[in-house]
Amino acid sequence: MSRIIQKAACVGGGVIGGGWIARFLLNGIDVAVHDPHPEARRIVGEVLDNARHAYRAMMNAPLGPEGALTFHDDLAEAVADAEYIQESVPERLDLKHRVFAAIEAAARPDALIGSSTSGFKPSELQVGMAHPERLFVAHPFNPVYLVPLVEVVGSPVNDEAALSRAMEIQRETGLHPLRVRKEIDAHIGDRLLEAVWRESLWLVHDDVATTQEIDDVIRFSFGLRWAQMGLFETYRIAGGEAGMKHFIEQFGPALKWPWTKLMDVPEMTDDLATKIGDQSDAQSGMHSIRELERIRDDNLVGIYQALKANDWGAGKTLREMEDRFFERAKDSAAAAAPDYAAPLVLHETRVPGDWLDYNGHMTEYRYLQVFGDATDAFLGHIGMDAAYRAPGRSVYTVESHIRHLAETSVDTRLCVRTCVLGHDARRIRLHHEMVDEAGNVQATSEHMLMHVDTNAGKASPLEAPLTDRLARLSRGQRGLTAPAHAGRPIRDIGWPEPV
Amino acid sequence: MSRIIQKAACVGGGVIGGGWIARFLLNGIDVAVHDPHPEARRIVGEVLDNARHAYRAMMNAPLGPEGALTFHDDLAEAVADAEYIQESVPERLDLKHRVFAAIEAAARPDALIGSSTSGFKPSELQVGMAHPERLFVAHPFNPVYLVPLVEVVGSPVNDEAALSRAMEIQRETGLHPLRVRKEIDAHIGDRLLEAVWRESLWLVHDDVATTQEIDDVIRFSFGLRWAQMGLFETYRIAGGEAGMKHFIEQFGPALKWPWTKLMDVPEMTDDLATKIGDQSDAQSGMHSIRELERIRDDNLVGIYQALKANDWGAGKTLREMEDRFFERAKDSAAAAAPDYAAPLVLHETRVPGDWLDYNGHMTEYRYLQVFGDATDAFLGHIGMDAAYRAPGRSVYTVESHIRHLAETSVDTRLCVRTCVLGHDARRIRLHHEMVDEAGNVQATSEHMLMHVDTNAGKASPLEAPLTDRLARLSRGQRGLTAPAHAGRPIRDIGWPEPV
């Protein structure tokens, strides 16, 4: 499965540009960066650190190789052979126009150009361009490597095929592109945020609530709902069986109540700015910005995984991204000729923060999760995929024996070495060894796997291609010495003398 | 650990009242309900079904016994001995006044009275009351049994001690009360929602976006962020090390841009109402309302658990709720004299939706999670708590042998029977048997536990009170016959004939 594009270019780093760089890089796409800011490499590096931490925690799939990252003092050199170019320079129209002119002078004629702008319309950006039809707005949200939405906006001159292609590329990096049908100031998301922002400023200004209280209202009420369903769907449920239109008609009159001060905007005086700054310090000052970023990202990763369990919203986006990573890993494995004279390495992972127990180390059942994932990788390797299972064949684990040999810390990169200990027509006896980066054995497991007819609910013989691939594998591995502990029971330690 | 109150009363059922009933009931508090609506019992029953499903999935702790639920045609009878009374009748001031008068005539003098109103201020509600100081607004969010926020608002006549007591009671039901410091129309949350609602109506009215597009913008961007951090904290991070005040000063000028149409409100014509209804049907009509409720709640439960892994926001609220449930279970267990002549039942749980594998059954490692939780319950039972561990003593699992005997389905209520197979100065050999409601054995596990000095990183002898309690337990259980499979290895099945 090849990459959708070979090369992207990012003009402008910073937090937003850095997030785009991370998206491309971690999805195996080479990125050339041009940013004259003296701190560009450091800032991009920090964003990449955050992104790698988040992806390791979030993805069950192996991350695979990153793309190559290069920095270029010359903008023309950076964009020269890029198929997709993302602009994330400061929000000044004259600066953006100069940047687009420079890009056009050097880029491929078919290169797509997206702008991260929050405030300008595509038609404003396109003024003076030779080929405005390939420039569009692609407005992301912070942190770009984790928040999936990108608002894609065109003007009447835009080439629909180019916009579709741009969104296809964005999807391959795990983004969720949304085509905004008309160009308007601030697109959609920032308009909604501006509405909440204004009302919040009034509440602070009038001492009705502090920044902490407003934030807690959000994250303990509708903020939770909105991670998975938006405004209209939530109200549809509230409206019940009578339906959405009925709900609207009942709810309509409320709009005339003097509920909001939205008719007006409070003046941002120095006093108001200071008040907000002080309240924010009181609310969040116990953490540095880097700490807050890490907390935020760990939370977002968890929310992604929660929604993935239900294949919903952002969780579905994550699952699709994982499927692509799994595909790539499978292709890599298939391409490499496996050496069956040694234990197979089919699964790697890293220990995320939410795998720890009250002793502060990787908790017991996560070992079995890692071993289970290694068993799944083994089964995939011998040909058990969704197509094999579809008519009603599967492999169940009927017995597992785990030895915990070391305490495993957060962030440890684990790799599992697998060998077959024996097999017959229906069963496979498997051994896994979990090692850290230094090769220290963290744990071992031994499993009995049983091939089953899932319709009949009973054991059944393995079928092709599993039989052939397993035979080939076991011929190679039969020469390996079985680990000394394999085939042993848990030791009987008896009882102390009666008291 | 006794219940904070014995009895609550709910005047008005419906979706909101039903949510309050669920909160009290599932936290072991008796609830008397008065609602003259002919469908009251059915509607409340449906809310309780949803709530039970959600709590079973969400809570690792045993749910314990529910409170008693009674319906009363006579309001006076319903409120008579209630310590906390929650009103959730329709949003009509005259009706609420009549209800408060009837409550006051029959309630205890020290009963606290909360109103679920979204639109009235406490001073408006309090008009005509004999003791207005014990009436306050306690405004919840749908679904009340899951969304933690309750906005608590008083007027100048309110008794601060009564409000504090009310919030203490609300916290005991897993709510997150937020004291709103001034009474204003719609409190805080609904004002923010109204702001987004108005802007969204304009976007639909002007055909800039459909209901689906607006909802997707929300749930794929800032909705995800707001499940864990609010507006101000998010902006603080975006502002970086320069600080919040600097961010505000930079961001201030944007407020003057013509970004929003918030100066005005679109007229809710029949055409606009129909357009919204049709778009909502296209977006969400593939699911019934009950299905959407179930999807919503499963997502919210997952989000709660994700945040609990980081002890953050609503996740911290969940952990505190679980701690209370664990305490109650421990007290129940301590109160009951354990029968050590039989296997001990120390852990029960139910299989939630996100525990399933691609075969649609409980996935392999979750069995070890359940067995691990049973081991933790056993260790707690013999006295290993945070205080025992604090100086550097703990118990690690060094070996586990699991036999999977049946496929376990979602929602199955599991219980684990535990017995000690042997022990010496440093080690305990433990056996768990996992059964379903019908007593069918789903799986068994055998474990070797090792007592360790966590500072030295080596095995060490068990100490009091573990030694005494373990001795007492094992004397009782020594008579039990060890399961036949205990102490056996995973069977060696050899290799097929070479081809």
TrEMBL record, chains A, B:
GO molecular function: carnitine 3-dehydrogenase activity; NAD+ binding
Binding sites annotated in the UniProt record for NAD(+): G12, G13, G14, V15, I16, G17
Subcellular location, record wording: Cytoplasm
Pathway membership: Amine and polyamine metabolism; carnitine metabolism
Signal peptide: none
Domain of life (superkingdom): Bacteria
SUPFAM superfamilies the UniProt entry points to: 6-phosphogluconate dehydrogenase C-terminal domain-like, NAD(P)-binding Rossmann-fold domains, Thioesterase/thiol ester dehydrase-isomerase
Record-linked CDD domains: 4HBT
Top enzyme category: oxidoreductase
Catalytic activity, reaction form: carnitine + NAD(+) = 3-dehydrocarnitine + NADH + H(+)
Residue ranges occupied by any 3-hydroxyacyl-CoA dehydrogenase C-terminal domain in the UniProt entry: 188-254
GO cellular component assignments: cytoplasm
Membrane-traversing stretches: none
Pfam families from the UniProt entry: 3HCDH (PF00725), 3HCDH_N (PF02737), 4HBT_2 (PF13279)
A biological process from GO: carnitine metabolic process
Protein keywords: Cytoplasm, NAD, Oxidoreductase, Plasmid
EC number: 1.1.1.108
Domain spans labelled 3-hydroxyacyl-CoA dehydrogenase NAD binding: 7-182
Protein family per UniProt: Belongs to the 3-hydroxyacyl-CoA dehydrogenase family. L-carnitine dehydrogenase subfamily.
PANTHER family on file: 3-HYDROXYACYL-COA DEHYDROGENASE FAMILY PROTEIN, 3-HYDROXYBUTYRYL-COA DEHYDROGENASE
Purpose of the protein: Catalyzes the NAD(+)-dependent oxidation of L-carnitine to 3-dehydrocarnitine.
Subunit-structure text: Homodimer.
Annotated protein name in UniProt: L-carnitine dehydrogenase
